[in-house]
Design a protein that fits this description.
The complex is a heterodimer of chains A (about 240) and B (about 240). With about 240 residues, chain A is α+β, with helices and mostly antiparallel strands. Chain A has 5 helices and 10 strands. In chain A, strands 1, 3, 5, 6, 9 and 10 form a 6-stranded mixed β-sheet that branches. Chain A has a 4-stranded antiparallel β-sheet with strand order 2-4-8-7, with no helix packed on it. The chains are: A alpha+beta (about 240), B alpha/beta (about 240).
Amino acid sequence: MGRLPELSSADPSSEARIAALQAELAAVKQRDAAFRTHMIQEFLDRGERNTYVHVLHEERAALRRREQESFADLELLVRKLEGAQARAAAAENALARLQGSLAWRLTAPLRSLRPAWGGGPAPAAAAPAVAAGVFTYYLHTSPFRIFREPRFTLRGWAWPEDGRPVTAVRVAVGSQTFIGRHGLPEPEVVARYGEQPRNPRPGFEVTFDTPPGEHPFSLEAQLGGEEWRWILRTTIWAEPRP
Amino acid sequence: MSRETDANTRWQESAATLGERSAYKRVWDRQAQDSEVAALAVAGHNDEATLDLTARQFIDTLRATTGLGPADVILEIGCGIGRVGKVLSQECHHWFGADISGAMLRHAARRLQGRPNASLVELATVGLQEFPRDAFDLVYCTIVFMHLFEWDRYRYVEEAFRVLRPGGRCYFDNFPLDSKHGWEVFTASASYPLERRPAHLSMSSTREELGIYLRKAGFVDVEVRDLPNELIAATGTKPA
């Protein structure tokens, strides 16, 4: 850049040049301001960052991410169920082969004599420690998922068809049991289904650990302070995110 | 009952409790239920002549503290109903008014009709994420800090630094406790029953606080002044 000539305000020609330069500077400032104003407005328009629309777009993007993650988990869950079914079918085949074998047939008389040996009756198929109940229920947070976090809180509401009061709620994951909170208000449920005289607040929540692996899962309610009945049984899979 | 008393009553009824103070969008949307209540909430009066007069007084303050030029691209944080913007937009290249309350901005839009060099932007949350960096010549925020928690005051100072161009100027004001007016506001606020303190209740700043915000954010040439209207104002410049 060349050096500007020295200007003196005492010199009339210099005064004119100063005025011209000042006008040029003002024009440059205006052009710069126009450019920045345009840039700001473009930024506001292009990014849709203005107003509530931006917030809605952010929320939509987050929901899409969640939807994609859910689809991926659902696919994984289906594969695991298919795997479990295949294992069950293979076990049934193996049992059928065993029962059709010569050795099984030859040892049949011995098995029929077993009570007489004092061995007592053959053990029944493993009876569930908790019997099934008949409930009207709904789960706000579904357990039918791949569990990614080390803990999960199951929320919902339930009451037994026989009208007994729910006096406790728990979840069994494998050999571990987790007692939850019950008697939580569910005004919308009451409004929809009517007041349940012995279960006026049918809401519950249970937080349980989800260690990595496959686990039997059981959601259970205690009725009338006595027996436990299961509301829902399934198998769950927990796989922390890589 | 006069029209203003009427609006005063409606304004009081529109106030949420102190626990909701951080829910700025909801708190100020509620106070913008109609234009008179909105004007009372942001300026303490609602006749147009007084609004214009106080806007001119503030612009004189800006001129004396930060300077004003016809080529300035200006951003007001918390512009409310556009009290200042309506007048200031006649003296600058472009005026942007940002507010967290969309309902306030609807009143501002009506008051700024016919001013092509005035734009209004609703902020999604505390901050100026809607605006690009290095864009403005002047960012100011007047009669707003008293309604914000300290963390949010500083957030706006930080954000002002980001959106100002190098060499850009900023202005932030609040009332101090050690002025007559400040003490009156304080004692009036203290008289609210504990459970009925409104969310927008005015809270003071110290000179030190405002100066620290500006310096921590990176501004230089920071000055904190006592203004004739008993406010204190901090000004600074983003290093070129």
